[in-house]
UniProtKB/TrEMBL annotation, chains A, B:
Superkingdom classification of source: Bacteria
Pfam families xrefs: S-Me-THD_C, S-Me-THD_N
Protein name: DUF917 domain-containing protein
Stretches assigned to the S-Me-THD-like C-terminal domain: 167-353
Membrane-traversing stretches: none
InterPro entries linked to this entry: S-Me-THD-like_C, S-Me-THD_C_sf, S-Me-THD_N, S-Me-THD_N_sf
Species whose genome carries this gene: Amycolatopsis acidiphila
Length: 358, 358
């Protein structure tokens, strides 16, 4: 158990933005929400799943929608607690703790705000240790844990509770609801027990996120050797450095989709193309896939090493493209069907980055 | 109070098909469901709202989707009771009676099957006394009664419960869910009290439907004077007799939409064009609107006077087009905004058929 205070939010936000791989919602807004909640309700305890009773009820909370919308349609904040309360009521149960479903972007910070308000701890675990665009894309799905019952709430008082026979249908039901409710809503899904988190979740992801953020902060401060230490800690590698020469972006089917092309600084004949569905999913150098989901593609600003989210990509931006292996918990049966390139409709093979992080 | 038995089902089905104005789902399947339920669980009591305690909980049940799909995707039956039970659970309340939300097509008969299974009466009232394609299109909406909380269920165990801030949004949320779940699902909406039914509903619609069906049955048996008696009872008028010379039909946005054109038997220069959104909505002779929502457009087979549903319209079919005034309960503030031609996107005025039925 450790206590998360306002002093931790900078590193946490930086790590979360990086792990968001370009998606996961605008971390700036969520950081303000978390800060306000800690000011109002006090620091949040971060507990490992083993510190909770095995049958303790753990509920998740996240923003769901398209980041391109979320950055403009600022959440009121009430919808997150409303989603959790609705699911708790449906289950006839109160949450003993809140857990992020993805440690990546906004969805790392929103659970902290909700936990502070509800006066319960946050569990140091998640289902992705990155961001993914669809609800079913969690290690919990690999573990056979249903995403439903789940709830979706908006800021006006609209509220939907779902039971779904499988996690892909849960995603489709939530997505069609979110399209109707304006593409920036709150969701609580995968109601878990602490025992299930321990068995199937990715443990330590909140702590990892803060540590990763602290190392990236050192890079941003220009500390000597900090970039190498950051890459070592993340087991990451720099794949490309260049200038954005093309962005094609559209919001469709409830997602922000697009393609971004980067031209190499040293050799203009070398280009990297990155495919987006809310998150950065696949990186190609020429026609050759070099970083593929579920491994992480992170884009850093070449000047100040700040992680770039897909909704802020801009023509002419100078960027470094980093590849990081996904959490080792992903490497089990069913991974490629669930979150490999073909799960996103690309007919290419997964290119493992080798080495498993941490 | 009267007891609805298998002997009533033929007239009820015939009346319901007519009041379905071409929509409301395939009555044949629903008739089999109602028959089976009465055989299994016994006759169903039909009660007026005033025969129930004022605060008695009345829940509705209906099929929701596109008739073109419903005719092919036969319901399993379990989804209807599942939708009612889910809403009852959400409300923390048990239904004292079941009520059709529309007396028109399948949705007149489904509530009978559910009432039989649950062992509760059916309320002799509804919210339309015809079929309409959208959930918010009820006299309850005119009375300020919210459609939500509501529930949607499918035959596989998928289940969604909604709270919505207004009835149009309730429709849009249900529609997007139904599109995801396959366009033929069960819905329970407008949870009411008997007092609300009495104050805002259309009373006697079940009885009216049986009586109307009995008169149409007499027409179909070729009894002398039966057609005139049928028209008189329904306050109806025959507007057109001819042959279907064109049908344009497509299933889009979760509805069956289209246009059917009829050429007059006696004068081939006269054509009637009828616009469809699940139901027959507007009838034009040439460019002149002659029957408009919320009044009823009913198509009868010219040979045997059987009412024709939109999904069975066929080229070359010989038909009579009947116009019937809507239930008098519709005539109050807000009617045209909710169910007039412009509510369906047609920039024409309502053409009252004059006289209000019964």
């Amino acid at each position: 158990m450790w206590e998360l205070t306002i002093a931790d939010l900078d590193d946490l936000t930086l790590g979360a933005t990086l792990l968001g791989t370009g998606g996961g919602g605008d971390p700036y807004i969520a950081r303000l929400m978390a800060r306000q909640a800690i000011e109002d309700f006090g620091p949040v305890r971060v507990v490992t799943p083993s510190e909770l009773p095995r049958d303790a009820r753990v509920l998740t909370v996240a923003v769901i929608g398209a980041p391109t919308v979320i950055i403009e349609k600022v959440p009121s904040g009430t919808e997150f607690v409303a989603a959790v309360r609705a699911l708790a009521r449906h289950l006839g149960d109160e949450p003993a703790a809140i857990q992020p479903i993805e440690v990546g972007g906004m969805n790392t910070l929103v659970p902290i705000a909700v936990a502070a308000e509800l006066g319960v701890p946050v569990v140091d675990a998640d289902g992705m240790r990155r961001a993914f665009p669809q609800i079913e894309m969690t290690v919990f799905t690999l573990g056979g844990i249903p995403a439903a019952p789940m709830s979706v709430a908006d800021e006006k008082g609209n509220l939907v509770v779902f039971e779904a026979t499988n996690n892909l249908l849960a995603e489709r039901l939530a997505r069609s609801t979110v399209i109707t409710l304006g593409l920036a809503n709150a969701i609580s899904c995968y109601p878990l027990t602490a025992g299930q988190v321990l068995e199937h979740g990715i443990s330590g992801s909140m702590t990892y996120c803060v540590q990763l953020g602290a190392r990236l902060a050192a890079v941003r401060r220009g500390e000597p050797g900090a970039y190498q230490e950051f890459l070592r800690f993340a087991q990451a590698r720099e794949f490309f450095s260049g200038k954005i020469v093309d962005i094609d972006r559209h919001t469709t089917d409830g997602f922000a989709r697009g393609t971004v092309t980067v031209e190499h600084f040293a050799d203009p004949d070398r280009t990297m193309r990155i495919e987006i569905q809310n998150e950065l999913l696949l990186a190609f150098e020429g026609d050759r896939p070099v970083i593929t989901a579920p491994d992480l593609i992170c884009m850093l600003d070449h000047e100040d090493a700040s992680p770039i989210t897909t909704e802020t990509l801009a023509y002419g931006q100078r960027v470094d493209v980093i590849g990081m292996p996904c959490a080792p918990e992903w490497h089990r049966d069913g991974m490629l069907e669930l979150v490999g390139p073909r799960a996103f409709g690309y007919d290419i093979d997964y290119v493992p980055l080798g080495g498993v992080a941490r």
